[in-house]
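Q: Joint fold for the lines below.
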Amino acid sequence: MARIPEVVVAMDWGGTWARASVADKSGELLWNTRLANVVGGNQEQLLEDAESVLRRAIDWCGDRQIGGIGVAAAGPIDIETGTFYALPNLAVLDGVSLKEMWEAKLGYPVFIGNDANLAALGELKYGAGLDTLKLGRQTRTLVYVTVSTGIGGGVMDRGQMLLGANGMAGEVGHMTIDSSDSAPRCQCGNTGCLESLASGTSIARAARSKLSDASFLPSLLAGHDIESITAETVFAAAAQGDHLAQSVLDGAVRALSVGLTNLLHLFNPDIIVLGGGVTKGLTEAGLLERINQGILQRAMSERHKDFSLVSSKLGDSVGMVGAASLVWQELGLA
Ligand SMILES: [Zn+2]
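A: Joint structure:
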């Protein structure tokens, strides 16, 4: 008789690291490892290294029955075939079907998803959604938004992940917030996207550009080498009362309030979860409540206002826990 799986192997494959963990049914990460992607590595090297990370995780499991392997990757993925398409940080993997390859090589079922979509699943099952469940309420619709170097997101609606026709749904960072001629350019080629107004990259860029405006001076940031200014520098200066830094964060808060209100009207979530490094900065600066108020002011009805805005419970592990959740869900054991 087949044994019931005790653990799953999860992988979070980003632009810098291939990380792997072993997770149990309660979403607990029992063991973790990681390997840096070879900078400028070719397809063969990257795949070989990622596979070696998975083999180490499988070896660690010993006698524990493994249910399968879940992989979260940053970018568009065809989830039926587990094929990568033009991942911004792992472009050499374009067209590779990890599912087919690793199922044959490793002998376990392999499930692949976009990291932001899987983060939404992870938060629903083991993060903010679980907290809500403990309070006796079932989460019907959860929107996850990561505000980091870029901005991405995922939507879980009544237990189903919203994928779109080609698996490209949830690109919340690229909804237009500012359609004026002066809107900043986004890396997607458009202008005025949420990502170009509220991501870590755009916070740093806005601070650099404001330094040339005398009305913001003096500023603590003026003492920095302009290229060394990051979102972290801006948060630190704002905490010390710096007018320029605070005005940059005001802009990001405003853009997020507008963007999240759009999501509220589109999806009518009961929970909006914010993750990523910029969210951490906003939370520490006490700005999450201002975003919440901004959404409430714009929301079109009392029914839409019936939501909570929370920061990610799973933090940096959200993609990993999401990848593990995907396996449990696909096995029908979630
Ligand atoms: Zn964009």
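Q: Anything notable?
A: The chain has two domains: 7-114+317-330, 128-313. The longest strand covers residues 17-24.
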